[in-house]
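Title: Prediction job returns without error message
Component: structure pipeline
Severity: low
Priority: P3
Assignee: unassigned

Description:
Job completed but the reporter wants confirmation the result is attached to the right record. Sequence as submitted:
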Amino acid sequence: DRTVTTVKKEEKAVKEAFTEFQATNLEDTKTKDDKMKQHENDVARLQDEVVKLTDNLKDAEKLRDEAKKALDILHNECATPEETGDERFASRKKEIAALKQAKSILEGWKD
């Protein structure tokens, strides 16, 4: 009789412990499943963001390359070759001589 009572008490205690464990385990599993779904959503969102940013990068690189080509064309059209100091001095000296000659022609024309 004592053994049956003891066994029933132990079975009841084990059953209660199992029920408590089962409830805790189910709650923990649900929490982890919810976190996993959230992480999966985050991964999908971040993958979409990476695709967008990669596309934006490609567009920006294309624009940069086009701008660089345009700059190279302008540089080739507009840039003068580098002159040395002596060459610049000689060019200015010729310009001054030409201006003096033009001035004397204009002054002679008035007379």
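Comment from assignee: result matches the submitted record. The chain has a mean pLDDT of 91.
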